[in-house]
Amino acid sequence: MGVSFGGMMAVEMAKHFPAATVILISSAGTRRQLPWWMKAVGSLGLNRLLPKRPGNGFRWIEDYYLGVETEDDALLVQNFRGKVDPRY
Q1: Would you kindly state where each structural domain of the chain is located, as residue ranges?
Q2: How would residue 69 be classed by pLDDT, with cut points 50, 70 and 90?
Q3: Which of 9, 23, 47, 82 lies at a 20 to 30 A Cα distance from 88?
């Protein structure tokens, strides 16, 4: 089972380690299932123009997509940012 990018990883892992069922949540099972804009960005190489880790000015966007709604949520995400490998 995998959520988002984890779903894509679950599909790839199932190719090497056969599973009875692969469950995808909010994920694309194949490249053909990606939204048109993701395909366009990848095909044109636009993803290489953006920094791998945006500056602090973009944290509100990250917070939004991570579902931050309360001060406790914000503290949890801040703690995550401090401990996560920058390459992630």
Answers
A1: 2-49, 53-88
A2: very high
A3: 23
